[in-house]
Amino acid sequence: MQRILSCQLPAHVGQRVTIAGWIHRRRLLKSVAFLILRDRSGLAQVVVSQPSLRAAVQALGEEYVVEVEGTVVANETAPAGVEVTEPTVRVLSEAEPPPFDLYRPTLTATLPTLLDHAQVSLRHPARQAAFRLGAAAVRGFRSTLDAAGFTEVHTPKIVASATESGATVFGLDYFGDRAFLAQSPQFYKQTLVGVFERVYEVGPVFRAEPHDTIRHLAQYTSLDVELGFIRDHRDVMAVLRDVVAGMLEACAPLYPDVPVVPAEVPSIDFPDALVIAGAPPDEPDLAPAHERALGEWARREHGSEFLFVTGYPMVKRPFYTHPDPARPAYSNGFDLLFRGLELVTGGQRLHRYADYVAALAAAGQPTAPYQSYLDTFRHGMPPHGGFAIGLERFLMRLLEVGNIREVTIFPRDLHRLTP
Amino acid sequence: MQRILSCQLPAHVGQRVTIAGWIHRRRLLKSVAFLILRDRSGLAQVVVSQPSLRAAVQALGEEYVVEVEGTVVANETAPAGVEVTEPTVRVLSEAEPPPFDLYRPTLTATLPTLLDHAQVSLRHPARQAAFRLGAAAVRGFRSTLDAAGFTEVHTPKIVASATESGATVFGLDYFGDRAFLAQSPQFYKQTLVGVFERVYEVGPVFRAEPHDTIRHLAQYTSLDVELGFIRDHRDVMAVLRDVVAGMLEACAPLYPDVPVVPAEVPSIDFPDALVIAGAPPDEPDLAPAHERALGEWARREHGSEFLFVTGYPMVKRPFYTHPDPARPAYSNGFDLLFRGLELVTGGQRLHRYADYVAALAAAGQPTAPYQSYLDTFRHGMPPHGGFAIGLERFLMRLLEVGNIREVTIFPRDLHRLTP
């Protein structure tokens, strides 16, 4: 008999059906046993009242994988108003007792224990839900960009030189040559603006992050966007606004608390942001406390959970950042704050070869390690810009969890290389 | 004035418009100049007949990035039946002469030269088209699986032990520990069947491939699928059939020669395949000549470009392969041949812990390096299976190009780490 999902049971009341999944919980009462079966669509209650099955049900444990054939009966007190009665139960796989109870509303083990046993802890409905939300967000990311004429690309993760700075890069031996894991697809996505005008990539990036913090990982999923033929960074911000709205729209069916992205996200210039945040006027960047103050201001003054800060000082932005032509000490770079936390960084990039050579010289950096990248700009590049969203950080902030590892399937950090 | 794309020109005849892009070709005649402008939608012809612009047009070179304002005029002999006249031309970026002519129908430089200058050669319309086709194929892959209840996942690319065999793996230092670049997400996608039942991943995989061949890369894009609660490999083959059909359907608007995937792809059992291929009955695998013979047979007998071969001998499949219960020397593994070439490998996997322990013992392998993976099977796993499609190999075979590097954006191989 064709298996149906637990969420389909209400449409089959009175019928004989087959469901399959994991035993989420087993409760043995005196004359009846309840099996809560978990499948990818949710939970189903199976009532075992046949004395002949008593011994078999006693032998079952939580996380056993079973196939159940039974009759669907309406029962107001059961999940979704139905339960499965008169079952036959076939064991597909046995299981050792899980290291923590998956059936409790919240996992009670410590985070390290949950991560050590991620194979099992990820099965908890609340944890599953976070990753389904992540998948939906990425789907919304792509569909927004596909509709706007972007091309998806896949770029090398093994590169000849470090993208941003050598400090936090993983090195490896590449057939006898020294190579690195890409910290970002920045250079490639810019180069590909020369090919496709508008590109995006969803892929892993690697940081040999020596700090043990709640928001740093050695590998994360970067959602990268770059587009050409912009006037300046404001065209990039408009795309970012639509992308975040598209991500959240895709999340909405799964998550009731999706925030609204205003059609016009409020925007504040960096020197004004310092004033509002009560920071000294010569600060080159925003500290977390400043960002929180700005988040409160945006909510109070604009009723918005989102705020753009534009015009960051050039001194704190990477060498490929385009300056504001009207005041060259400030950049055409921006951050998007969400609830008083930086969610996205982006901006306009330089697009002329001579400007790159000058920028590297001003930064005291040699051009040789960047030659392959710089060659792109010898061959005609339009004004362009882009941004990157860290998927796990997006989820962390949307779900307001305390540690990025809670929203990372198998996190990699200073101390963790398995599972 | 808002920029429009070259493909939108026919809707603007008689109007003044702005287009922007690269100078694909510049032709100076005695009293008139033609600029062919390339943007992401195609080519547009600009006619410069004003004597006052003569010097400015002479200064332009191919691959300059320009913005052109002009009047759209119908002209049967121009591309798409329109051209832009009475232009003003604004240079956005200058460019050095490209190392080869991008305007010729075919790039004439050698493959190494094209790859050395990938920043420029990728701009050629025919090369662009291949990668747009790749993006469409991946879109079709995802949409087919999204509709079938699959969850997209992102798994670690830095792992503690080699997945399949140690021979072709990149090693790296991970905060003082020895680590490896993942050769495939095989173990993780299986583990995640325990969480989501049905998962897929699109991501890079890494092979320290010491051979310099037309079809091997050190990094490629793997389209990985795994699903639980299968009867056996035939359920996996049914999903694969739909996935390949979905990929080709998404490609169809861009590529006229998309092959038809039969609703029921013909399938042949391994021993029968040996007979048809004229191979000795004790061969444990199919050689390329055998696959070609089978491809011809499938076309002749079934009118199909696709053929499943099932029941490969266990001896040639990885240790996690599920045997055929009726004849344990043969597997529930399959290949999908496309035009007589292996396109996809897949199969049913073991799902019980004891079976893994026995399989590793039979293969003479220790369990310790696999412990984190094996732990998954201690905790209840359904019967499951899956497959992996190499995106670049899919494109290579669809477009029938001679070298996989022609359909890889920035290939990585034994000799190539840049651009």
What does this structure look like?
Two copies of one chain form a homodimer. By secondary structure, chain A is an alpha+beta fold. Chain A is 28% helix and 28% strand. Chain A contains eleven helices and 18 strands. In chain A, the strands form four sheets. An eight-stranded mixed beta sheet of chain A has the order 6-10-11-18-17-16-13-12, sandwiched between helices. A five-stranded antiparallel beta sheet of chain A has the order 3-2-1-4-5. The first copy, chain A, is elongated, with a radius of gyration of 26 Å. The first copy, chain A, starts with 15 loop residues before the first strand and ends in a 20-residue tail after the last helix. Chains A and B meet through strand 1, helix 4, strand 6, strand 7 and strand 8 of A and strand 1, helix 4, strand 6, strand 7 and strand 8 of B.
Quick structural gist:
Two copies of one chain form a homodimer. By secondary structure, chain A is α+β, with helices and mostly antiparallel strands. Chain A is 28% helix and 28% strand.
Write the layout of secondary structure elements.
The structure is a homodimer of 419-residue chains.
Chain A: E1 16-28, E2 33-39, E3 42-48, H1 54-59, E4 65-74, E5 82-93, H2 111-116, H3 118-121, H4 125-147, E6 151-152, E7 158-159, E8 171-174, E9 177-181, H5 186-196, E10 198-206, E11 219-228, H6 233-251, E12 267-269, H7 270-277, H8 288-302, E13 306-310, E14 323-324, E15 327-331, E16 333-338, E17 341-349, H9 353-362, H10 371-378, E18 384-390, H11 391-399
Parallel strand pairs in A: 6-10, 12-13
Antiparallel strand pairs in A: 1-2, 1-4, 2-3, 4-5, 7-9, 8-9, 10-11, 11-18, 13-16, 14-15, 16-17, 17-18
Helix pairs in contact in A: 4-6, 4-11, 7-8
